[in-house]
Specification:
This protein is α+β, with helices and mostly antiparallel strands. It is 24% helix and 21% strand. Strand 1 and strand 2 form a beta hairpin. The structure holds S-adenosylmethionine (SAM).
């Protein structure tokens, strides 16, 4: 944890805010993805001493500069690293926001000068300088973007969190980048007339919202009314395809409205708060103090010093990343997490606080919402039977090896707490129903010459979410996954739901993902494929195999619409190239977001690709 309090000069929380009133702008220019309430995890899980809670250690002081002297940080911040962002990364997406906001022609002209002037900060815009800005738009990541007033020969933007289009703000610069600087919000001088109803400090909206808004790096869109959050995400999908698919607009359908989450709060079934270990100087100080106290105790019968007093100078903070400054923000509750996780968080915080001196490295606590394990456990002989009457009991799991149970419609899922499962259970029925309907559109059923798939291939299947929930409509289902643990869970889930006879689960490498399917009777001509890869998207070997397999329908589900747009673009172009002579290709039939992550700027995107044959 921090050895010194974060310097108020490197970043300040939004200060007192003024009145806001009125309604909402109809255009949201939006951009990026930051981790939701999750620290970058740098290493393996480790069991704690009592064997109950599992903690994921991260690199000592991953919040990094927090333990360095303030002076070093300042020096570092003065230099702009002239590195271009990795393609499709959040920084790349933000640069596209900057480019769109300034105007592509102007930006390309500045970059085209080839004199590096896009990196040269306008005269007088030093670090820690305060500037007044009229906020122009949202970035995709939900931050505000404004034009620096009176910027000399080139335009320059300022990105500031927690402000809204139409606000007039004062912001303090803390970092420079290409054609943009990043700033902390100091004060909202005038709230946007049209943006949000209510008066006073925007962080207090909505009623029952989060008291950490304005400091926590988690929920960027929290004060944005929910319909506007959905609009923001629709725009994100649209921008991603414009920027990254490399397809002409004629090849893309109109983006459909984003489907909202049934739960806008208390939906998140997994959180991973983290904490830093005490710095060495503090450990040493505590050790010395203990030795001297033991000496005193032997000499007298007086009470030892109060332990809270002992820890003066360094405090345990357990929570999430702070926005715009290093270090952990101490979080006692997270209103997007389910109630059972918040109760457990209180217990876990106390446990860590009481034993903090035993940690030499920072760590992450895993908290996962689970149904109480069914008793007896369903088996292939006595499969799961959902019962509406029974009240569901939830528990919080903290050991990554223990099984978590979740129900999706009439199916029961089990997987180890440390492995992947979607984090918002409330939207999984709308999501899986949508995928089902996309595969079997009512208007194409029974149509002349329409081939209806009988086989489903669930790639990147995890513990079998799509394969199992969609199984009813198919004769056979196969799931393919790289993780042995997830495949074992998928197999067990199929058995628990009585689906063992129609399902096949294969642990496959990306290079040979469809390898084992032939012999199981899966042919592209009677199949559809669900693709649900991690954030980095699919690799080329996978996409080539998918085209070679040539399924009737491809439904691509992704938590990173930017890499999805890249991959969909590749599939469409390659299918045109490969299939040209033989008269087939894929077309993008629909694109739409699902809001798996309300209050944040993240969106899950579903693309439906249909095989078209002449
Ligand atoms: C976003 S999760 C989707 C899981 C599942 N579809 C669900 O909704 O629960 C992505 C999954 O892809 C798996 N995966 C990652 N790389 C892979 C690869 N190269 N080939 C196959 N599966 C992979 C991961 O283990 C993970 O389970």
């Amino acid at each position: 944890m921090t050895t010194t309090p974060p310097s108020p000069s490197t970043s300040s929380p939004p200060a007192k805010r003024l009145k806001s009133s009125g309604s909402i702008p109809d255009v949201i220019k939006t951009n990026e993805f930051t981790a939701i309430n999750e620290a970058p995890i740098k290493s393996e899980f480790l069991p704690d001493t009592n064997g109950h809670t599992v903690i994921i250690p991260k690199e000592a002081s991953a919040s990094g500069s927090s333990s360095k002297p303030q002076q070093t940080q300042k020096k570092k911040n003065r230099k702009i690293k002239r590195t271009l962002p990795e393609k499709y990364s959040s920084a790349d997406v933000t640069f596209h926001d900057v480019r769109d906001f300034i105007g592509a022609d102007l930006v390309d002209e500045v970059i085209g000068r080839k004199d590096g002037s896009e990196w040269e900060v306008p005269e007088g815009l030093e670090l820690f300088k305060e500037v007044e800005l009229d906020v122009g738009a949202f970035t995709v990541s939900g931050e505000s973007i404004s034009l620096l007033p009176n910027s000399s020969d080139k335009p320059w933007t300022i990105i500031t969190p927690f402000a809204h289009p139409g606000d007039k703000i004062r912001a303090k610069i803390y970092k420079h980048d290409r054609l943009t600087s990043y700033a902390d919000l100091v004060e909202i001088l005038e709230h946007s007339e049209e943006y949000r109803g209510g008066e006073g400090d925007r962080r207090k909206y909505p009623e029952g919202g989060c008291r950490y808004f304005g400091e926590c790096g988690g929920c960027q869109l929290q004060p944005v009314p929910y319909p506007l959050q959905l609009l923001h995400k629709k725009r994100t999908v649209q921008l991603a395809y414009q920027r990254f698919s490399d397809l002409p607009s004629t090849a893309l359908p109109t983006i459909q409205p984003t489907i909202g989450s049934p739960k806008e709060w208390a939906y998140r079934t997994k959180i991973t708060p983290h904490f830093d270990a005490p710095p060495k100087w503090f450990q040493k100080q505590m050790k010395e103090k203990k030795v001297s106290e033991e000496g005193e105790m032997n000499a007298s019968t007086t009470n030892p010093t109060d332990p809270t007093e002992e820890r003066r100078g360094w405090e345990t903070r357990i929570g999430f990343e702070r926005k715009g400054r290093p270090g952990v923000l101490d979080i006692e509750e997270c209103p997007i997490a389910t109630p059972v996780l918040n109760s457990k968080l209180t217990e876990e915080r106390k446990r860590v606080q009481d034993t903090i001196l035993s940690f030499t490295r920072g760590a992450t606590i895993l908290l996962r919402d689970s149904l109480s394990p069914p008793d007896p456990l369903p088996t292939s002989e006595t499969p799961f039977q959902p019962s509406e009457a029974e009240e569901e009991k939830h528990v919080a799991i903290t050991n990554h090896k223990l099984n978590v149970y979740e129900k999706v419609g009439k199916y029961l899922f089990s997987f180890s707490a440390g492995s992947f499962f979607q984090n918002n259970n409330s939207i999984l029925i709308p999501l899986t129903d949508y995928v089902k309907e996309a595969i079997f559109p009512t208007d194409s059923l029974g149509g002349e010459g329409v081939k209806v798939p009988t086989h489903l291939v669930d790639t990147y299947c995890g513990s079998g979410l799509f394969g199992i929930t969609l199984s009813e409509r198919f004769e056979r289902v196969a799931g393919v996954e790289i993780s042995h643990e997830s495949i074992a869970a998928a197999k067990k889930n199929a058995e628990m739901n009585g689906l063992q006879d129609k399902t096949t689960w294969l642990c496959g490498k990306a290079e040979d993902i469809f390898g084992g399917l032939d012999e199981k009777g899966f042919e592209g001509g009677k199949s559809c494929v669900v693709v649900d890869p991690p954030r980095k998207g699919c690799d080329e070997p996978f996409l080539s195999q998918l085209l070679f397999f040539k399924p009737l329908t491809i439904v691509y589900v992704s938590c990173n619409v930017h890499t999805q747009a890249r991959d969909v673009g590749y599939l469409i172009r390659e299918s045109e190239r490969k299939g040209e002579e033989k008269g087939w290709k894929y077309k993008v039939e629909s694109l739409r977001g699902f809001d798996l992550f309300p209050q944040t700027a993240h969106v899950e995107s579903v693309a439906v690709l249909r095989l078209v044959e002449n």
